[in-house]
TrEMBL record, chains A, B:
It comes from the Bacteria. This is FAD-linked oxidase. PANTHER family: GLYCOLATE OXIDASE SUBUNIT GLCD (PTHR42934:SF2). One of its GO terms (molecular function) is oxidoreductase activity. Signal peptide: none annotated. SUPFAM superfamilies: FAD-binding/transporter-associated domain-like (SSF56176), FAD-linked oxidases, C-terminal domain (SSF55103). InterPro entries: FAD-bd_oxidored_4_C, FAD-bd_PCMH, FAD-bd_PCMH-like_sf, FAD-bd_PCMH_sub2, FAD-linked_Oxase-like_C, FAD-linked_OxidoTrans_Type4, Oxid_FAD_bind_N, Vanillyl_alc_oxidase_C-sub2. Keywords: FAD, Flavoprotein, Oxidoreductase. Its cofactor is FAD. Gene3D superfamilies: 3.30.465.10, 3.30.70.2740, Vanillyl-alcohol Oxidase, Chain A, domain 4. It comes from Gandjariella thermophila. Coiled coil: none annotated. Residues 35-214 form the FAD-binding PCMH-type domain. The keyword Transmembrane helix does not apply.
């Protein structure tokens, strides 16, 4: 029996897919600049035991395994290599439990982020991490990349919301980490080690996630426009330094505003160099927004308006959420993802303008400014080899600018394959050696998502 | 040259201590039931390079190294083994930087927690984690054990406040993790792996810590007394389920209340079966406290009073903070540390009463109830071998009761040596194998704080 036939026989009928047309759809995530190989097959598993079976089979035959959620990643972390087995978690969609009293849920890796949000909303709860992809990305992918989003500035990232994990290790055993106690120091923090490990240490099949009570509605919202992008950055720095607690603080600069208006008329000011949309929730929302508005005015905002009207606020949020789609409409795009200390935002925005000017690449920036996390998006005329190469060099310049300001080459998208080279400017040899030692300890044959993540 | 003379020559004069009387003071932490060996010497280092020197020396000669902060641990994590070198970080007390704009500080391991608090208060900031030992324990020890405290219910534990680390690895190299960006997914989360690793993977020499703006004073405070401890537990469960946001929610039951009153008259109700002290900060403090009071009344509180008078609130907090000292005045004591899901507090408190009754051991319980984290304190008549053995069995019963409720054998004190056997009821063989694999990867000769932590 061939190895593939052996695996097919070990899995329920229909689980293993070898049809080349179907398999081709599982080759890559959404990182346009990163190479992707050809998988041998895709295992569309429906339970944890099937993941164990696939992993044990991979060990027997020395086959590389690429775990995959919805494939919405932006760094190539789920890209196939030739001859690999893709293990797709997309069908593990059970919400095993919602424990409303303890504010937690136990969910499988294939649950769509927004589906979890809707399920827990019925209990007056919400799941904070809300990556731009929240309507299409899976919790498993969110966990693998430690996904962020707009609400993280107040409520933390995926790692902060994770109490425990179920993980299939490279040897096919099931590891259970963490638990239901919110304070727990029993042993090493394997939970947070696996979150953000980009599938390199194990395959996350389920998680115990911490939920929060829905804030008392409605939030207070403001929008401010600025005569320059650095002025908007300075406003954010001032808001943070002032100790205000935004529940959302998002930035869009000129190119992004216009891309959104091109895509759908949202009545944003096309002439603004940059705008900030900020929100605060809770009983003191109005007071927090008043502090934020004062910071904007002092930083030189030329127009500020606030609202407690939910419809108006939703419109503003929708405009920000449309940015991703709107920018991809402008042409092939590369969504960068850098972070800087929040006092350095003005400098980073100035550096981006310099890079756009010196490279000639259009850069439209949006970002979770309250966290110092920006998404400078390169808008390309085409995907010809020379254009791609120039885009990669431009993206590298963006990362190096963030590092020069004491920042990071990735705030929430992950290193994947795209950012491996640039990461060496951030992590030194000792740090990389520790990464390799942990990888070797947990996956000595390097079968799990090899050559990515660091 | 003898190995010790060699190390003495490599370190600045006065760094290495071999005087038996002085060395004896570095044998143990404060876990009375845990054995401690006799160190060869103590290196009282003053900088990171000296830690590297000591670690390289230890590798050359195969000597076990026990890192140590202030020795205030309660699980034996810093206890010496015969022939070891104790590396004491107590003299690395520099606050290298306070970055008020970005709300962070870079501090060395030997800084006392409360000293950091006082230093950053001048900038209108605070460092949230506040273990009971905060006036005497070091940041390094707090990091090694992932220490908690009273403010964690709102602001998170030590791990949540850590942005980056400087760590000396077993091979003597310096590892730098994390950074200054609040969102950062560049590589594995080594920062959070080392926090709480109890000195088993490396020696933390410095950390970049996240600070928070001081909340607008004064907080609102309430105290409620209950006719039974489980009723107080039920009130806490209700408070959490209701979505209230306490900045502190502490429990003391009858034995603890009376120990405090014995120690110093604080006008607590000696007849109460249990009391809760709760606090909320921020602009909506009064409203949060009103919700908490309603939950207490519905759970059967027989007396509730609230205050916004800072002096009165300070008195209540001081009473709670005195509990540790007051309980040790009652006789030799063992401060247990378990956690349960917050809906199970009433059951845990009932289980503690049963254990006290069946074992005949006095158990005085205090705890960070809002986190489901209790410190049942065993008060012993003496420390005779039979008493110690009975105390260990009683402590084990406490841990097993927590596990039976879906909890943890340690919420914030760590496993150390004390809880290794009981941990096997919480972590299965696969999880323990992963711990061992990571340990072997980073410390193949098992020289760093061996045989503890898991």
């Amino acid at each position: 029996m061939s190895p593939l036939a052996e695996l097919e026989a070990e899995l329920p009928p229909g689980t293993l897919v070898t049809d080349p047309d179907v398999v081709a759809g599982y080759r890559a995530d959404r990182a346009d600049l990163v190479p992707a190989g050809h998988p041998l097959a895709v295992a569309r598993v429906t339970d944890t035991e099937q993941v164990c079976t696939a992993m044990r089979w991979a060990q027997r035959h020395g086959v590389t395994v690429i775990p995959r959620g919805a494939g919405t990643g932006l760094s190539g972390g789920a890209n196939a290599v030739d001859g690999c087995l893709v293990v797709s978690l997309e069908r593990m969609t059970a919400i095993r439990e919602i424990d409303a009293e303890n504010h937690l849920a136990v969910v499988e890796a294939g649950v769509i982020n927004a589906d979890l949000g809707r399920a827990v909303a019925e209990h007056g709860l919400f799941y904070p991490p809300d990556p731009g992809s929240f309507e299409i990305s899976t919790i498993g992918g969110n966990l693998a990349t430690n996904a962020g989003g707009m609400r993280c500035v107040k409520y933390g990232v995926t790692r902060d919301a994770t109490l425990g994990l179920e993980v299939v290790l490279a040897d096919g055993r099931v590891l259970r980490t963490g638990g239901r106690a919110v304070k727990n120091v029993a042993g090493l923090d394997l939970t947070r080690l696996f979150v953000g490990s980009e599938g390199t240490l194990g395959i996350i099949t389920a998680a115990t996630l911490r939920l929060r009570p829905a804030p008392p509605a409605p939030p207070a919202t403001f929008v401010a426009t600025f005569p320059s992008a650095p002025a908007a950055g300075a406003a954010v720095s001032a808001i943070i330094a002032a100790g205000a607690v935004p529940s959302m603080l998002e930035l869009m600069e000129h190119e992004a505003i216009n891309a959104i208006e091109d895509y759908r008329r949202m009545d944003l000011d096309r002439n603004a160099a940059a705008l900030l949309i900020g929100q605060a929730d809770g009983y003191d929302a109005a007071r927090q927004v008043a502090t934020m508005i004062r910071c904007c005015e002092e930083a030189g905002a030329d127009f500020v308006v606030d609202t407690q009207d939910p419809a108006e606020a939703d419109g503003l949020l929708q405009a920000r959420r449309l940015a991703g789609l709107a920018l991809t409409e402008q042409g092939p795009s590369v969504i960068e993802d850098v972070g800087v200390p929040r006092s350095r935002l003005a400098e980073m925005l100035a550096a981006l303008a310099d890079i756009a000017e010196s490279t000639g690449v259009r850069i439209a920036t949006v970002g979770h400014a309250g966290d110092g996390n920006l998404h400078p998006t390169l808008i390309l005329p085409d995907l010809e080899p020379a254009t791609r190469e120039h885009a990669l060099k431009t993206a590298e310049a963006v990362c190096r600018a963030a590092l020069a300001l004491g920042g990071t080459v990735t705030g929430e998208h992950g290193v994947g394959i795209l950012k491996r080279d640039w990461l060496a400017g951030q992590l030194d040899d000792t740090a990389l050696d520790v990464h390799r030692a942990i990888k070797a300890a947990l996956d000595p044959r390097q079968l799990l998502n090899p050559n990515r993540g660091w």
